[in-house]
């Protein structure tokens, strides 16, 4: 990932044990040429001293809203002006709750509310705190407000438990920030994405579906929007919030998804088919609930349309990207799929590894061969995939008029 020279960053440190990693992050950002202004909450000072950050950043550390020694008593406004971004690392569950509700009762929360630059948040908390419904709501709210979430990752936690909630490593946060602030790779390019599963009704209360959380497709839609694209997301049933700046059309069955894609495809420059579309649907769904009578039941299935193959075979197709979730023999199956569907790029992963997870790894197959995108949070992976797509798309010169 490219460095971000001369970026001006406010680094907000809140009170969690991961505050020590913020010291490392300060060093990493300074090493990459950033000017880092650290602001600490009172609780953060219980973990690391301001002097540590002052020494590492080379700038005085701000802690108080109305510090009499500060030359500018409107620090909560002045500190963010002329800055490229605010990064909160670590962000505790408590601070995320404050952000979600717009509280401004200390210097750091006040300058987040008063900011005129992007806000990026690297959560760090115990896994139960991360899974708590209140935290889930707050995180969803921040996504809707356009706040970028960096992580968290799963693994060993300071409390001795293992799970989701660990703060990303300093280098990962610095990478994500560089990507976020990077030049827009797809300015004004129209991107159509399918995501999530489809659901095929057997009767009014039952159906067949594929296992898919939609997280990868949503991350790709978000990454494309961050890269400056105009993004339409055709989504099967998921519980995910629409990424900021993305237009979503909902679909339940494969046929509904196909109809939605047909409506939008003529305006698409790039089509990314991430959805786990059910290959078959019940041939004759019942109008009324099937009653149990103890006998064997046969449901006849008929094939669904292959949306990606249909799009790729259009007279002037958009640049098509397919996904392949394989349970074995990744390279052979993905290449076969790429040829069969006639798409220039297929992103493959191991299904058992990726479904529902927040992290994954991908192997890309295109005319040049094979490119590995190492294990990372799906958001980071999606940004790298979009960078790759932008390169191929630029070369293909496929932009429609
Ligand atoms: N796809 C699609 N419409 C379908 C089926 C799949 O658009 N009816 C897209 C998916 O979104 C994905 C790719 O095609 O981009 C997956 O290819 P597919 O051959 O369907 O994968 P599998 O269903 O996993 O194939 P198989 O069961 O043969 O492994």
Keywords:
401 residues; alpha/beta; Rossmann fold; 2 domains; eight-stranded mixed β-sheet; five-stranded parallel β-sheet; 14 helices; 19 strands; globular; disordered N terminus; binds cytidine-5'-triphosphate
Task: Provide a descriptive summary of the structure in words.
- The chain is an alpha/beta fold and 401 residues long.
- The protein folds into 2 domains: 8-181, Rossmann fold (3-Layer(aba) Sandwich); 190-400, 3-Layer(aba) Sandwich (Rossmann fold), CATH 3.40.50.10300.
- It has helices at 19-31, 50-57, 75-78, 93-101, 107-113, 127-131, 133-144, 170-181, 215-226, 254-265, 307-312, 330-341, 351-354, 378-396, and strands spanning 8-13, 35-40, 85-91, 119-123, 148-149, 153-156, 162-166, 190-195, 199-203, 206-209, 230-235, 246-250, 270-273, 280-282, 301-303, 319-326, 345-350, 359-366, 369-377.
- The strands form 5 sheets. It has an 8-stranded mixed sheet with strand order 12-11-8-13-16-17-18-19, with helices on both faces. A 5-stranded parallel sheet has the order 2-1-3-4-5, sandwiched between helices. Strands 6-7 form a two-stranded antiparallel sheet.
- Helix 1 packs parallel to helix 2 (50-57), helix 4 packs across helix 7 and helix 9 (215-226) crosses helix 14.
- The longest helix is centred in the C-terminal third of the chain and has 19 residues, at 378-396.
- The chain starts with 7 loop residues before the first strand and ends in a 5-residue tail after the last helix.
- The model is unreliable at 1-5 (pLDDT under 50).
- Cytidine-5'-triphosphate is lined by residues 194, 254, 273-275, 277, 279, 304, 306-308, 322-325, 337.
